[in-house]
Amino acid sequence: MIVVADTSPLLYLILIQCEHVLPALYDRVVAPRAVISELTDPQAPEAVRAWATRSPSWLHIAKPSQSVVPSKRLGRGELEAIALARELNADALLMDDRYAREEAIRHHLPIVGTLGVLGDAADANLIDLPDAVARLRQTTFYASEWLYEWLLSREK
Fold first, then answer.
1. How much is the mean pLDDT over the chain?
2. Cβ atoms 93, 64 nearer than 8 A
């Protein structure tokens, strides 16, 4: 299974120390160069910058062969992730941003968000879901209370 990762899922999985689930869940994880640039931006948390600077061997960094058209609603990382997912015929696009997800859906790309990755990792017994969600809630990640409750109720 090939997945293309946008910035947000990588950033939050790194912050909550759950990025190790990605190579366990997926055969190949690809991130566009623009995503790596966003993760190494001086505004990014230090742990995220350090991780992206020495990205693990399981993370494949690529650039779409076609140039992306700038958008007022989407960032370069999101645009490159969508373009790369289309090019690679990826099995999933790891993405959280609502507008980016809408654009990905227009291109018929399957999407998995950060919470979906955590749910899949819990199903595969790779993480303790309540602990991971508690750590995620201490970051700037936003999800509705209903969504958190639904995810945690799957554990029972």
1. 94
2. no
